[in-house]
Automatic annotation (TrEMBL):
Belongs to the TRAFAC class dynamin-like GTPase superfamily. IRG family. GO terms for molecular function: GTP binding; hydrolase activity. Keywords: GTP-binding, Hydrolase, Nucleotide-binding. GO terms for cellular component: membrane. It comes from the Eukaryota. This is IRG-type G domain-containing protein.
Length: 169
């Protein structure tokens, strides 16, 4: 019976999203999380420099320089898996993972070194075109039969670059 109720709830959420009714979809997602006390572990992953920590901060309503914000910078900042709590839902945890494919976290040992299987859901952040490491992460998540979203970050940089090109022509 609980599974059937959960499926109906998910169907309502999907319909709300398809109708671009984000507030309703958000409420429907948040209600079960708050009522059941279920912990949701969301891994934020991707290559170094893609904006993973900035994404975590934005999702939590923090700027990069606020107290409690995930450290950000132009060099590799995230050197260990770190949890951050949602400000309104303490049972929702965002896990800021180190960047994949660096000397400290090579892609061939990344999954093991960050404990990839312990997460419930994944957000793969990419700052440019999706690359081989992004595809490998997505394939591994699918192999585990878990869900993920791709998020394209730093799109404003691309838009500004295109505007500059247009002005030069």
């Amino acid at each position: 019976m609980a599974v059937q109720t959960d499926c109906k709830s998910v169907t309502k959420e999907i319909k709300a999203l398809q109708l671009h009714d984000k507030p309703s979809a958000g409420r429907m997602v948040k209600e079960p999380l708050g009522m059941n006390g279920i912990t949701l572990n969301i891994a934020i992953t991707g290559e170094t420099g893609s904006g993973k920590s900035t994404f975590v901060n934005a999702f939590r309503g923090l700027s990069d320089d606020e107290e409690g914000a995930a450290p950000t910078g132009v060099t590799e900042c995230t050197m260990e898996v770190k949890e951050y709590f949602h400000p309104n839902y303490p049972n929702v945890k965002f896990w800021d993972l180190p960047g994949v494919g660096t000397p400290n976290f090579p892609s061939d040992t990344y999954l093991e070194s960050v404990g990839f299987e312990k997460f419930d859901f994944f957000i793969i952040i990419a700052a440019a075109r999706f690359k081989e490491n992004d595809v490998k992460l997505a394939q591994e998540i699918q192999r585990m039969k878990k869900k993920f979203y791709f998020v394209r970050s730093k799109i404003d940089d691309d838009i500004n670059a295109e505007r500059k090109k247009e002005k030069l022509q």
